[in-house]
Amino acid sequence: MKTLARFLIRHASGRDATRIAGIQVRSCQAACQGLVPETKLRELDASRRALEWKDMLGTPCQQTVLVAMRGDRMAGFCTLSQSQDPDASSATAEISSFFVDPLAWGRGAGHELAEEVMDQAKRRGYSRITQWVIGANDRAKRFCESLGFAPDGSEKTEEISGCPVQELRYSKAL
């Protein structure tokens, strides 16, 4: 647990599943406007995702889930694990999920989460960290670049609500 400038950054528990799912859905809906049809974004189901998060948070796994709290309000969350990319070394960590509630965008929660997740990766002996970003999401790309990440040339296509989106891998030495 770490208290930074304005947010308490702590490890998530099963009790956080509903709030994590809500942030994931709201953030995805806001960030993917114009990239994914509106009807598909409205179909995102926070209650289904909450069950998935509750299962994951209740099971020992290789992922660390951190949340940013201000008082009793959750502002965002991120996950840290060893990279599963086929070209990654065992010294490469990955931020596999990173979502901030749109109501908290621009208020520091994302930066504080990112700083803590990078600190944790360093303490675990990783020398590099990566994050996949939707190529058309200029806000997310600027955010990664503000933290010292840069595109490393790797791309892939993922699906959001059944719609293909191009993702770029951002990387940073720790």
TrEMBL record:
**Quick check: keyword Transferase in the entry?**
yes
Q: Is Acyltransferase set as a keyword in this record?
A: yes
Pfam families in the record: Acetyltransf_1
Which PANTHER family does UniProt cross-reference here? AMINOALKYLPHOSPHONATE N-ACETYLTRANSFERASE-RELATED-RELATED
What the entry lists under SUPFAM superfamilies is as follows: Acyl-CoA N-acyltransferases (Nat) (SSF55729)
| Domain of life, source organism | Bacteria
Q: What does the UniProt keyword field contain?
A: Acyltransferase, Transferase
Question: N-acetyltransferase domain: from which residue to which, for each copy?
Answer: 23-174
Say which species the protein is native to: Luteolibacter arcticus
Protein name, as recorded:
GNAT family N-acetyltransferase
